[in-house]
Amino acid sequence: MHKTSFAIIMSLILMITIQGSALATPSSAEGKxxxxxxxxxxxxxxxxxxxxxxxxxxxxxxxxxxxYLTQVTGAAFQIxxxxxxxxxxxxxxxxxxxxxxxxxxxxxxxxxxxxxxxxAAQRYLMIAGSHPRGTMYGVNYFLDTYVGVKxxxxxxxxVPTFPKLKVCIHYDVQVPRFQYREMYVNDGxxxxxxxxxxxxxxxRDRHTHVPQSEPELNSWSTYWPYDVHNFKKIxxxxxxxxxxxxxxxxxxVRSTAAANLISRVTQHVYEGxxxxxxxxxxxxTWNPDPDSLAFAALHGGTLAAPIMDMVGDVATRVKAxxxxxxxxxxxxxxxxxxxxxxxxxxxxxxxxAPIDKDHGRALNDPKNGLSKQNVEQWAQITDHILVxxxxxxxxxxxxxxxYPSVYAMGETIQFLADxxxxxxxxxxxxxxxxxxxxxxxxxxxxWVGAKLLWNPDQDYHELIDEFVNGYxxxxxxxxxxxxxxxxxxxxxxxxxxxxxxxxxxxxxxxDLMRQADDLFAQAVAATTNPVHLQHVQRTRTEVDYTxxxxxxxxxxxxxxxxxxxxxxxxxxxxxxxxxxxxxxxxKSKGTMASLYQLIDVRRTLPTAPGFVSTLPYSDWLDFQDxxxxxYEPAGTTLVNDVKASDxxxxxxxxxxxxxxxxxxxxxxxxxxxxxxxASVRIDPGTGSSGVAAMNYGxxxxxxxGRASIxxxxxxxxxxxxxxxPWTYEYNPNxxxxxxxFAPPNSTxxxxxxxxxxxxxxx
Length: 762
Known about the structure:
Helix 1 runs antiparallel to helix 15 and helix 12 runs parallel beside helix 13 (about 440-455). This protein is about 35% helix and about 20% strand. By secondary structure, it is α+β, with helices and mostly antiparallel strands. A hairpin with a 2-residue loop joins strand 1 and strand 2. The strands form 8 sheets. Strands 22, 24, 25, 27, 30, 31 and 33 form a 7-stranded antiparallel sheet that branches. Strands 4-3-5-7-6-11 form a 6-stranded mixed sheet, with helices on one face. The chain has 19 helices and 33 strands.
């Protein structure tokens, strides 16, 4: 209630400010610093000065300042270039003899590449960093914090109106907490948007070979060495490969890696790039050789030990040839756990990537205890850690599903800020370059994350409120309620947010979606500004998507609870299409066109199978085809099928042996023991009794199994329930258990269909 009331009050204040802005001044005008009147009733009181021999970045920053101050005040601010400022009050942009004489920090190392000072002295207001990138950030920070310009998204900037603009200038020294800051979002290649929000990371562009930036922006941090998952690229000889990775303790591997990295770093320097390169494990498992296993046993039993011993040795050899060379590597999957009794050379940057943690809960949450312990142990081994955080689902429900990771992100960044060894942060919002722009909470997550990476001492709830009020306008109270409702629903569940979380997760309940749908309806009704309305509707897509995918489940629950509920399917689907027409992929390698095809498969209410019709609802569960994971490269898809219980089924051709249809334990219950029954049929082919019509199995680290079903049992082309011979019971220590179904890879059948899987409590 407190948050809701606060949001309503803030929304009213925002509307009053916008409507009465002709008489307003920014809040930064208050305080005990020097009061500076920049404009008064259309008259500019200051000029803007930049040295004529300044860098293109300095000049661009001065021009941005001129442009935005003119827009905000309506006054014609002028920019001056030369060797010294002309007479009269001046905003001096950039480092020079003048600013150095008045701002001593500019001549030292305390500001780093990104820090800056905003100060008033004599007739000058100075904005300068020790480096041009710091000056650029200083101008952007000044426009944001002192003037009120907000770059909320790549396509939306809020520019206030202040004909009378007065600011209060303290001696404001700003240095970011994190040396490397990147929110990996699809910002439409809008590098200026990143710079406005004080982000300095461009790793994704280095990784995907996007052309270099424009000169006025081409100053991205090189702290994080380029390239990952490249062991076999750096050491290409197959005789040195072992168990998907390398023979980590082999001298020939190390000498080869060092020689090839020296060559690559040398080429980087020749091309005008930084003297660094990555050397890290392939993106898969490792079945290590005996020597590596023996070394791991001596250092805490973690496979990170032989890998880090190799990387550290190689990095030392590279440094002997190129003294300023740096090598990047990963603490990821089988190397996430830090080794004991080891240190790393100072020229190694470790990327800590806890992919298996619960991304809906902070890194220091008790449910992420192992990952918290791991990063703290890495901090004892090295002073150079960059954390790769996972902020979105890109393999399960996808980019457009509700993904309440904003609170966890804020708390994680604040936790990491207290670990001095953590120098950088990479917030991953997508897997490739075709994720949606400004869908769901993507803009909110990126903006709040950027603010915290500069200054993690800020209250992230207040940042969320600021964004919501500026981005949604009159709809802000309802959007605040939705964001909090979504996060609380997840926090109260036993679900886990991963990169494969399904759209059918239990926290996305019928009750939550009904409440969310009502809040969005109120938000739309309250909004008169078309831009804010667009923001509301593009955020609403995540609720529409969830309801479109689960409407039959919700209808069943409504029926059982005697609740009258209309999914408004046709109108909802039309709206969803309207606001996702520009989306290419809804998940990694999953096109929007393929999602539309899934939604086009209209379902009906299924009836209960006879063998459970007398059981209470709590003792049996119906997992319909939309809960399956489909292996799309094999041609697996959902289709309408009049023989299926809900008029739909998962189908795959018979001429493949892929485990094409799967039911993962993320869908299955967390308590009790369960027997499972699959409803299957085939389109008959050339098979006969005695040959397999299909294969199926259960994958589990604790033991699984596989079996087949005879063609003769399915030859009639009708659905039959088949008992799966493995009792299911949830195991929190296993993260990848599932049932799978595969065709026989022959002409015995034309197609295999799985309609539903019924779970019955033992």
